[in-house]
Write a structure and sequence with these properties.
Elements lengths: L3 E9 L5 H12 L3 H6 L6 E7 L1 H14 L1 E7 L10 E2 L2 H9 L2 H5 L4 E3 L6 E3 L11 H43 L16
Antiparallel strand pairs: 1-2, 1-3, 3-4, 5-6
């Protein structure tokens, strides 16, 4: 497991169209349009985390090719903190202008499960007021219930499949099966 994060703050490369970059990011990251719009609100968000350095740099380059200026951050504990790796000089200049405290709290963002508002970790959503801890617990309960239902359906299908296989094996031993209601007539040989 790696210790690198790929971070995005809504910056785009020179000459790139924000709408085109937004659409390309949505396709690359497999997110919907609403979440792609949220990436361009000026907040630093973690695109991917727990990556190896080469994977993080490769993702940074892929996103830069799409027009998004990202940075890579090593979040491992070291004696000397490692700075983010900007991809070009423009990104380096933008990075220097950023608020230093914002870089340290990028992983502290949470998305409200009700209204999808991206905010710093808190107990209640700033936009809709929902209790985030209770909403997260409810979501976990729902997820567990869904997982149980999926397991039950899989077990039921597996049992049906095994029953069909055993019936098929019995049918081949007795000869071909006839549809229900039909009776096999004995063949009389002279």
């Amino acid at each position: 497991m790696g210790t690198f994060q790929v971070l995005f703050s809504g910056d785009i490369a020179k000459g790139a169209d924000q709408a085109a970059v937004q659409a390309a990011l949505a396709a690359e990251l497999r997110i919907d349009e609403r979440k792609a719009r949220q990436l361009f609100q000026g907040r630093t968000v973690v695109i991917r985390n727990q990556l190896e350095e080469r994977d993080a740099l490769a993702l940074q380059q892929r996103l830069f090719d799409l027009g998004a200026v990202c940075r890579v951050k090593d979040v491992s504990v070291r004696d000397k903190p490692r700075t983010a790796t900007p991809i070009d000089r423009d990104a380096a200049r933008l990075e220097q202008k950023r608020d230093r405290t914002m870089r340290d709290i990028t992983a502290a963002f949470v998305e409200c499960p009700r209204c999808a508002h991206l905010q710093l970790e808190t107990s209640h959503c700033a936009r809709c007021g929902v209790d985030l801890v209770a909403a997260a617990a409810e979501k976990r309960r729902e997820d567990l219930l869904i997982e149980q239902q999926i397991r039950a359906l899989r077990a039921q299908r597996l049992a049906q499949s095994r029953a069909a296989q055993s019936q098929g094996a019995a049918a081949t031993a007795d000869g071909p099966r006839l549809p229900a209601g039909l009776v096999r007539k004995p063949v009389i040989k002279p």
